[in-house]
From TrEMBL, chains A, B:
This is Transcriptional regulator, LacI family. InterPro entries: Cro/C1-type_HTH, HTH_LacI, LacI/GalR-like_sensor, Lambda_DNA-bd_dom_sf, Peripla_BP_I. The lineage of its organism: Bacteria, Bacillati, Actinomycetota, Actinomycetes, Propionibacteriales. PANTHER family: HTH-TYPE TRANSCRIPTIONAL REGULATOR GALS, LACI-RELATED TRANSCRIPTIONAL REPRESSOR. Residues 11-58 form the HTH cro/C1-type domain. Pfam families: LacI, Peripla_BP_3. SUPFAM superfamilies: lambda repressor-like DNA-binding domains, Periplasmic binding protein-like I. Transmembrane segments: none annotated. Keywords: DNA-binding, Transcription, Transcription regulation. It comes from Friedmanniella luteola. Signal peptide: none annotated.
Length: 345, 345
DNA sequence: ATGAAAGCGCTAACAG
DNA sequence: CTGTTAGCGCTTTCAT
């Protein structure tokens, strides 16, 4: 039946010839655009599936100016967050008959620009995850990319729709949790300094500090992955903090691992929080307290925004997912000896 | 400079007009195919970048019959294995100027066929991960898909190149490890019954059993994810096995988690092995003993095979990556009381 | 309702 | 070496 290797795929002309009609009639029947005599239509359909014909997407794209494809540009396919976004996006887009192209800039901010512009030409729109790109560059880029949806950051000026997590509120909840547990010396292990989600966390920190002068909150540059979290352990211990807020779960995992090697107990000696709630966060020992970000939904909603843009419907408002606090075993009461002890800046 | 939103992107005709030459000359200069007078060439280049011109990939694809895109079809974007494959593939392909399209069949074997065929039309070749597709269907599909590289399974008849892990040898090593630790009653938690990698593991089991009649090896149907591993715990305990070989790391994690809930200690009461070595396997408590599969390399090599096919070079042989045994904390000596105790089938 | 013809943007013969 | 022309496979006026 199927499976016989056809050297070159059939064209609309083959179908037209076999059905004894013109090209336009075939096109009309197959696209259901115009009224066609039912007798002819039947012949066309018969011919089409006798020849196992499907219109060339390439040719259609060229003439229609529409590829039915969108691209997602990510800074790093290694990061579990983007897996989730990709999965959500891909499935949602597929339901609407759209395909998705992935472009991994491998953390290079300069590449990201080129890559996005280049990729844009092969599709109808871009879902852009570019947390580190400077705001000005981003603004300029957005105008070139046209239908674009931002993930995990918002644009200042443009009316570009965005789908993101509310990193500020997530970190605020974690801060309150630790304070409620009696922690008075906290340390935040920062991610990429200029990244949007890092800035949001810093804003949460500032607001919290202003509100709670009894808690000392320090910031230490760190990073975004396991290794960087691991390397931060000595700094964490030196800081004297009893509660550590890691930039994300990966950093928290690295930190807990290094802490374990040094014989420091979590949460007895120090409480650790992550961010994101990656799939394995709950299975760590102890299970990681974190702010859960629904990454798959992020991807799905990114598609919905994109679909609106592609249908030239109203852009829709930016969506913020509020992270859900997941209190697990990596946090607990502050060790007795330090409660209320410190008064340092 | 850049950033001014151009309503419609410029065409080769615009460049030709501005440079005062014909379309073909522009094409020739920009593709460097034929010798062009240097003076004209310079004018063309000047015009091209004054207009910020890039040839439409769509139009080129149509006329060249080549899209510079490949697609990867996966059964489930949720599985960490495919993340790795995708990442390796995407980066390797990008280095050669190729783009990648992802198609997630969301575990539906029937969809997979349709999806692969449909997706194929938008690109130059398919990297196919279809572990569950029946052999006969696969064979038929392969002829339609033309340039295709298989990941994690081989095709019987066709000379389709494949890139896969040697699941059989990996499981054999795990079996030997457990036997060396004194385990004489083992249980294998099987994955998808007809999947290639499950069949390979079963082959390893049979060979091992024949070679070591002193070890009782049972098989229990299970699955491929965390939840299925979790649900297998009671069956595992009922079996009396002291060593459990989970289909993969996800299953092993689920099992260990459920075992923990029941107060069963790993590895003191029962040893557990995984398969794949997903990123977090080493950070579990206890760290998971597993057979490490280099998923990123799998993706990279899949690209290299594909590149050979696209360059109509010799297909290249199928590549087998031998999993590396990672002995960690989830396995240990068999509990004394059961060593040599059982003689059941 | 149907067919002929133009054209999407580009490349590759084919002439000169 | 350069320009003219004919497509790649399809959709869509525009006539009929």
């Amino acid at each position: 039946m199927t499976g016989r290797p056809h050297e070159r795929s059939r064209t609309i002309a083959d179908v037209a010839a076999r059905a004894g009609v013109s090209l336009s009639t075939v096109s009309r029947v197959l696209n259901g655009n115009a009224r066609v005599d039912e007798a002819l239509a039947a012949k066309v359909r018969a011919a089409a599936d006798a020849l196992d014909y499907t219109a060339s997407p390439l040719a259609r794209s060229l003439v229609l100016g529409r590829t039915n494809t969108v691209a997602v540009v990510v800074p790093d396919l290694e990061n579990p967050t983007f897996h989730g976004v990709l999965r959500g996006l891909s499935r949602a887009a597929a339901r609407d008959g759209y395909h998705v192209l992935v472009a991994d800039s491998v953390e290079s901010v300069e590449e990201e620009r080129i890559l996005a512009v280049e990729t844009r030409r092969r599709c109808d729109g871009i879902v852009l995850c570019a947390p580190r790109m400077p705001e000005d560059d981003l603004e300029r880029l957005l105008t070139q990319l046209q239908p674009v949806v931002l993930v995990n950051r918002e644009a200042r000026s443009t009316g570009t729709p965005a789908v993101t997590a509310d990193y500020r509120s997530g970190l605020t909840e974690l801060l309150h949790l630790l304070r409620a547990e009696g922690h008075r010396t906290l340390l935040y292990l920062a991610g990429a300094p200029q990244s949007s989600s890092n800035l949001q966390r810093l804003a949460a920190l500032r607001a919290f500090s202003a509100e709670h002068p009894d808690v000392a909150v320090r910031v230490e540059p760190c990073g975004v992955n396991f290794a960087e979290g691991h390397d931060a352990a000595d700094g964490v211990l030196a800081s004297g903090a009893t509660g550590v807020l890691a930039f994300n779960d990966l950093v928290a995992m690295g930190l807990m691992s290094a802490l374990g090697e040094r014989g420091v107990r979590v949460p007895d000696d120090v409480s650790v929080t992550g961010f994101d709630d990656i799939p394995f966060a709950r299975y760590l020992t102890p299970p990681l307290t974190t702010a859960s970000v629904p990454v798959t939904e992020l991807g799905e909603q990114a598609w919905h925004r994109m679909a609106e843009l592609l249908g030239s419907r109203a852009p829709g408002h930016t969506i913020l997912f509020r992270p859900r606090l997941e209190v697990r075993g990596s946090t607990g009461p502050a060790p007795a000896r330090t409660v209320g002890a410190e008064a340092a800046s």
